[in-house]
Amino acid sequence: ADDGYRLWLKYDKSAQPQKYVSVSRKIVNNFGPSEVIQTAEKELLNGLNGMLGKDNSSPNSKNILFEKNPAIANQGFKIELLSNKISIQASEPNGILYGVFAFLRQIQQEENLHSKTSIPKIQLRMLNHWDNVLGTIERGYAGSSLWKWYELPETIDPRYTEYARANASIGINAVAINNVNASARFLTPEYLSKVKALADVFRKYGIKVYLSLNFASPKILGKLKTSDPLDPQVRQWWKDKTKEVYQYMPDFGGFLVKANSEGEPGPQEYGRTHADGANMLAEAISPFGGKVIWRAFVYSPNPNGDRFKEAFNEFKPLDGQFAKNVIVQVKNGPIDFQPREPFHPLFGAMPKTPLGLEFQITQEYLGFSTNLFYQSVLFKETLDADTYSKGKGSTVAKEISMIAGVANTGSDRNWTGHLMSQANWYAFGRLAWDYELSSEKIAQEWTKMSLTKNEKSVQTIENMLMKSRETYVNFTTPLGLHHIMGQSIHWGPEPWLTRSQRPDWTSIYYHRADSLGLGFNRKESGSAALSLYHPEVQKQWADPKTTDLKFLLWFHHVAWNEKLSSGRTLWNELCFRYYTGVEEVRQLQKDWESVKGTVDEEIFNDVKGRLAVQHREASNWRDACLLYFQTFSKMPIPYEAPKRS
Ligand code: GCW
Domain residues of the chain, as ranges? Predict the structure, then answer.
């Protein structure tokens, strides 16, 4: 039985070894000595021995050479099949390692071996862990943290290596290992020595470690009276601390900072700007070549404002003021990792500042670990969105210089809770490397390597994955609804939430249901958030008659009996979508039933169980939302709920 532990790195015996008789087990390293190259050798041998057997007696087999090729930019690679050798080339050690995994993928998927050159489009590809000092994970649904702080640094769990391999196999080259709601303790010698132990493992896989920091550390740890970024003592404290960090980890990546956001400390407490705060850290870290990643996830509790606009209003005026080694990390959408959001208006709007794009792989608003939600489709929607900043074709993907995903990993044997959520980790890495890959292609790769090579089942599972995002949107937040989930239970509905610690955490703030209709007017006559976008983008969403129904209620308050482009009234369309969503979950269950016998039985049963949970949850969403919205629309629901079994 398979417990999912091996992820997509299963190197079981190939069913078609004859296809690969030309591949020898002899590896010649002409690249030069490096720790990462040693890893590449080890991984290649391990994969080949597993899939093709240790013995290689074929007289025609070709040695595999690691070679230096300065023409292959960045961490890219070239695999060349020549008459006398198989050559894996790169200009950097990481490139060789990525080339090895790409080569192994060809055999894993039973493809004919082929030459291939691939250069990553985004250079910094990162996971953000929201892992805490005590071993819990904020918004983690797959057990507790992988990092066993109480055992470190003396005990090194072999799982750290397994984790690093998985990341390297999809091109991830950086990890921020602790929560952005950061404990200052991570900067103490006690914790730095533990973090160093992790960095020593990850380095072998070409992965750099970053730390999230608490902006008030000078006060908390340094016992200074202030953490004001313009105070000379504070600046010196950070310089000294940064130097200390680099003594532990000479290749330390940098700091990730959440400041003046959701109660976290920051420069604004002292009347300073985000740029003041970021630049102070940038100055401290620049002698070591490190980076400061400053998050733009900020908003204030203003019941009459629109949270949609706040990050834009705070950051756009700072464009041009950040030091060179600062990256501003922006969430994919303006609110908070909802099942669907329009792209964040900051993309394309800060031409003088390197921007990072942050996705949330862990499924905080996407059904935790009981719902199937293939995020590649969501990732692509954002990456492909056109900002028009430099004319047509200025996609979000082209506007960014780094990409981060909030990790969905944890101590569960299968890493991600829902087995199918492994596909989201995988897809994140693959798209970070090459955002032009299609979601279908990534789904196929993942399925073949992780679940089954049975052609019909691969097709079925690919279809399930591809449909799963829209299904989730349908039964939770169709037509552009957003942020109507439970206050603490983010996987369930609570559209009636009127009171919260903060007005902009309630549901009514977002859906604006009343006797006339539903949706948030963000045109000039409303919050005017739409005006933050390029005029070409505004055009797409300005008129409710022509706005894609996916985004309708993000921008418009629409009358209940308004006829939509689908031919149905808003109310009927809403009912239709909620009902369709639940039906689609039924269909996912049926589809999964059809792959029985072609995937591992333990995995089959586990996913089957989770799909059943999802069906129950989907029915709850539908009933809760429709019965609630009906108190405003006062219209009948034109469907009959199927009897619950
Ligand atoms: O989505 C919200 C989460 C918080 C998180 C915050 C953030 C780490 O509910 O748990 O805090 O976003 O991204 O900072």
Answer: 17-118, 124-450, 475-633
Residue 142 has pLDDT above 90, yes or no: yes
Tell me, what amino acid is at 32? Answer: G
Question: Which atom of ligand 1 sits closest to the CA of residue 336?
Answer: 1
State mean pLDDT over 269-295.
98
Q: Are 93 and 409 contacting, i.e. CB atoms less than 8 angstroms apart?
A: no
- Ligand 1 mean position to 263 CA, how many Å? 11
Set 240, 262, 524, 543: catalytic member: 262
If phi > 0 it is left, if psi is from -120 to 50 it is alpha, else beta; for residue 161 that is: alpha
Q: Evaluate whether 380 touches 342 at the Cβ level (below 8 Å).
A: no
Task: Judge whether residue 644 has pLDDT over 70.
Answer: no
Q: At what angle do helices 601-633 and 455-476 cross, to 10 degrees?
A: 30
Given a cut of 80, is residue 189 above it in pLDDT? yes
Cα(137) to centroid(ligand 1), Å: 11
Based on C-alpha coordinates, what's the Rg of the chain?
25
Per-residue pLDDT at 55: 81
**What angle is formed at CA 426 by the lines to CA 421 and CA 427, rounded to 5 degrees?**
95
Q: What is the mean pLDDT of residues 411-435?
A: 98
Three-class secondary structure of residue 246 per DSSP: helix
Q: How many Cβ atoms are within 10 Å of 288's Cβ, its own excluded? A: 15
Q: Model confidence at 502, in pLDDT bands (50, 70, 90)? A: confident
| Ligand 1 site, CB within 6 A | 130, 138-139, 180-181, 258, 262, 297, 336-337, 364
- What is the side-by-side strand order in the sheet with 23-29? 23-29, 62-68, 85-90, 77-81, 116-118
Give 364 Cα–ligand 1 centroid separation in angstroms: 9
pLDDT, average across residues 268-275: 98
* Nearby residues of 50 by Cβ (< 8 Å), 6 or more positions away: 11, 12, 13
Mean per-residue pLDDT for 108-133?
A: 98
How many Å lie between the centroid of ligand 1 and the Cα of residue 542?
Answer: 30
From 131, 136, 139, 214, mutation site for ligand 1 pocket: most ligand atoms within 8 A of C-beta: 139
Question: Taking the domain 475-633, which CATH number applies?
Answer: 3.90.1330.10
Taking the centre of ligand 1 as the mean of its atom positions, its distance from the CA of residue 204, in whole angstroms, is: 31
Known catalytic membership, residue 364? yes
Strand ranges inside 341-493, DSSP E: 355-360, 400-406
Q: How many CB atoms lie within 10 A of CB 289?
A: 13
Residue minimizing CA distance to atom 1 of ligand 1: 336
75, two tokens: 């961490």
Of the residues 43, 358, 364, 386, only one is catalytic, namely 364
Hey, which of 131, 214, 261, 297 would you mutate to test ligand 1's pocket, going by the most ligand atoms within 8 Å of its Cβ? 297
Residue 645 confidence (pLDDT) above 50: no
Domain 124-450, CATH 3.20.20.10 — does that match? no
Atom 13, ligand 1: residue with shortest CA distance: 297
CA-proximal residue: ligand 1, atom 2 (nearest): 336
If one residue of 138, 295, 299 were mutated to test the ligand 1 pocket, choosing by the most ligand atoms within 8 A of its CB, it would be: 138
Q: 17-118: which CATH topology?
A: Chitobiase; domain 2 (3.30.379)
Residue 504 binned pLDDT confidence (cut-offs 50, 70, 90) = confident
